[in-house]
Amino acid sequence: MAKKPVTFTLNGRESAAFAEEGQNLLDFLRRSVGDLSPKYGCGQGGCGGCTVLIDGEPHLSCLTLAEAAAGRKVETASGLATGPVLHRLQEAFMERFAAQCGFCTPGMLVSAKALLDRNPRPTREEVIEALSGNLCRCTGYEPIIEAVLDAAGERARA
Amino acid sequence: MTTVETFPTLAEAARAMGSGAAFFGGGTVLMRDVNAGEGPQRLVRSADPALKEVRAQGETVRLGAGVTMARILAERDLAFLHSVARQIGGPQVRNMGTLGGNLFAPHPYGDFAVALIALGARAVLAGQGGARPVEELMRERARPPLVAAVEIPRPRSGREFSFLKVSRVKPKGVSVLSVAAFLPAEGGRIRGARVAWGAMGPAPMRGQGAERALEGGALDAATIARAAAQAAEGLDPPTDALASAWYRKEVAGVHLRRLLERMERG
Predict the structure, then answer these.
(1) ipTM for the whole predicted complex goes beyond 0.90
(2) Contact (Cβ atoms closer than 8 angstroms) between residue B44 and residue B5
């Protein structure tokens, strides 16, 4: 099995590891790079648990070839906090009890981050649309939607 | 086990096809099989910038086969395709899934192809001159040719073309069925009606019953009723977890009527 070196930016830091032939980006991030924040849900692109941002846009890491990340900027939920200081989306998720089992949360957070980076004051409908590729089987979505709207409000005041 | 080969140009990739190879675009279809251990032996990729080229001006727009749904949505000159692109997958899939891949995405996917068939779009094949009608390619889905670009005639007005996708889950759900209509009119009469269906046969297909009912008529209540009554003619929908074949045939006319009434209102 040929291994291919992949150099990319992970959460703002230069990163490099070897990818196996045909390995998906999710498996690569979790096993070769050691970032466990993106989650393996379905492996079929249905659940959004593996969502990461590539060049700022949400992608399904389980359906992305690891080698296709070469030279790109990858962001995961583990890059959201700055040291002990949580990202305002993480704060808002906590305040709103938007994480129950927590499995969908990293994917939800990065999908929400991509939305707020592009559209700092989204409407409720825009939040729902932006999160429509991320499944949650605990919360019924309401607390998550409210958390994203709260985080957007904070940004507007800041 | 799957190997991955990446070529700088599409022409080189085309030459590398065959013998267990599948062309890898956005990955939303193929990578599922790879993850399940059922992928093709070889994945062939290309970094050719022509695959992502967008020529959005003029009477016929030309989009590289590697253009994503998100890219279409970002292009103001492609507004006539926005309602279609917006209904493909969720945000992540729209950032990944390509025009070329959607042409051959198996049921219940492939709704963009439905719109392309109604619009009379043509596919430019890699390494070949000329272009072939997209509807013709649908018959070769088992062994898809390598598509370089798609040429799409731009409707003269927003009223000429409309698309409807019916799903049980909103805003992101797969098709119970999808339907698109392109109805150019001359002197108040429909000339050259094209109706296409998704999830109503083994691949996206023309709806000849509805087209016959619409051709030469005015888009009014009587014509719409006639088209709705003949909607399911010649269609052979599948039975799956979303709906039975019987159900799809029963509701085809209802959804075609809704689409046509929307076009009538303008």
Answers:
(1) yes
(2) yes
- Rounded to a whole number of angstroms, the distance from the CA of B14 to the nearest CA of chain A is 19
Residues on chain B touching A44 (C-beta within 8 angstroms): 32, 35-36
Show Cβ contacts of residue A115 under 8 Å, excluding neighbours closer than 6 positions.
Answer: A122, A126, A127, A130, A131, A148
Which residues of A touch chain B, with CB atoms under 8 Å apart?
1-2, 21-22, 24, 43-45, 48, 51, 54, 57-60, 62-65, 67-68, 111, 114, 128-130, 132-134
Pairs of CB atoms within 8 A across A/B: 83
- Position A118 scores a pLDDT of 96
**Can you name the residues that pair with B153 across neighbouring β-strands?**
B60
pTM of the model: 0.96
DSSP character at residue B124: E
Does A157 score more than 70 pLDDT? no
pLDDT at residue number A158: 45
Encoded amino acid at B15, one letter: R
* Residue of chain B whose Cα is closest to the Cα of A64: B27
Residues B175 and B137 placed together within one structural domain of the fold: no
DSSP state of A82: B
CATH ID of A88-157, from 1.20.1250.20, 1.10.3720.10, 3.40.50.300, 1.10.150.120: 1.10.150.120
